[in-house]
Amino acid sequence: MNAYRASLLWFAPRSEGVARALYEQDGLLVVGPDAQGRQVVQAIGAYSTVSRQYPQVPVQHFPGRIIAPGFIDLHIHYPQIDVIGSPASGLLPWLENYTFPAENRFSAPDHSAQAATFFIAELLRNGVTTALTFATSHPESVNALFAQAQARHMRLITGLVLMDRHAPDYLVNQGQGSLSGTEQSLRDTESLIQRWHGVDRLGYAITPRFAPTSTDAQLRGAGELAKQYGDVWIQSHVAENKDEITWARELFPASRSYLATYDDFGLMRERAIYAHCIHFDDDDRALMRDTGAAAAISPTSNLFLGSGFFDYEGADRVGYQYGLASDVGGGTSFSPFHTMLAAYYVGREGQTKPGLSLTPQHLWWQHTAGAAGALGLDGSNGGPAVGNLLPGCEADFVVLNPQATPLLARKTALASKLDELLFSLIVLGDDRLVEQTVISQAI
Ligand code: GUN
Ligand code: ZN
């Protein structure tokens, strides 16, 4: 066992109400193996009490530092690391001119491996310990990312991008022998599930890019796999951009809405994570709630691509799950601090939907415990828990240095309440705040 002494930030259990942060100025976090040999939190609380219960455990002291749960990125594209900051008039030209050409390079295993190594290192450098990630339509890109995440003991979920139409020939799923591209993509998905899902800390996500780039046959096949493999994840995009919505409605006129298209093909259920979810009506919100699907809110991406503003009031009024995501490369930063600040701006916007002033505890929760709940990784079903430091959670955490920059040091020294401290970190923070990222390792 190991113990870490520092200021501690974590979240009350979901049963005690959403988004309530707990904070211990002089705390002790005790980590040790569970029955399966995974390193999990054994105890957390005031140093004065917890240290008496674990007198033999060696203590590492981090004076002036804050230990907090590792962040969870609910939606990111590892093949888009070189696309960050590519301007376009909107989503569809951005995809065509920058994103698809960049993704083409991932047919080469060497390029995939090198990008995967960089990507995982960059997540960890920014304090992100769990990610739900797009790869490309090349199986090599999926294998490369899983292999790298496995080597770093990281909890990572990814999958082969399904796109069998409306994309350049070089990027649509390729057929082999007598199999069409559509059939091959579904077969590849199943083999990748069997090879990787549940291995160490890895999980598979069935990944139709978005409805417009899949045929009915591909979406139907994806839905069948989602039914057959009930504990794999599903990820896609929805209702991000007005032109995208018009296009999706033309292609699937029988569905009640763009979102309902996914439901019509069996792609909405728990563990289904839809990026953006901006242009929704209340029937869409109710469909999210009733199916147990969750939104990956991607504020830096939505601001960069001019897509619109996620409606927090609508989501909470109807009551469906959500969490935060960088959506790199539409998104502009790997840093959870930048994403939380952008989420504050998006929530605040009050011209296109009700404007809310989200609390810093709530923003932080959306990127940790809330995101874990959206993924079904909060331990509520007896499975693993991440995104929190309650006893039993996997011990993925960050060590933050609130003195990382002169302005942070000056501002955080003035904080007299937890919300003041957290807001200073969110507004002024970036990768410099993250002194260490610690990953739970099986022993
Ligand atoms: N919709 C379909 N593909 C993409 C993508 O790569 N990024 C974003 N932001 N939206 C998408
Ligand atoms: Zn995306």
Keywords:
Metal-dep_hydrolase_composite; guanine deaminase activity; single chain; metal-binding; 16 helices; TIM Barrel; binds zinc ion; 6-stranded mixed sheet; zinc; 37% helix; 2 domains; Urease, subunit C, domain 1; 443 residues; binds guanine; alpha/beta
Description:
With 443 residues, the chain is an alpha/beta fold. The chain has helices at residues 47-53, 91-104, 109-125, 139-151, 181-196, 216-228, 242-251, 258-264, 282-291, 299-304, 312-318, 336-348, 360-366, 369-375, 406-413, 418-428, and strands at residues 2-11, 21-33, 39-46, 59-69, 71-77, 128-134, 155-159, 161-162, 202-208, 233-238, 272-276, 294-297, 321-324, 397-400, 434-438. The strands form two sheets. Strands 5, 6, 7, 8, 9, 10, 11, 12 and 13 form a nine-stranded parallel beta sheet that branches. Strand 9 (202-208), helix 6 (216-228) and strand 10 (233-238) form a beta-alpha-beta unit. Helix 3 (109-125) packs across helix 4 and helix 12 (336-348) packs across helix 13 (360-366). It is globular. The termini are close together.
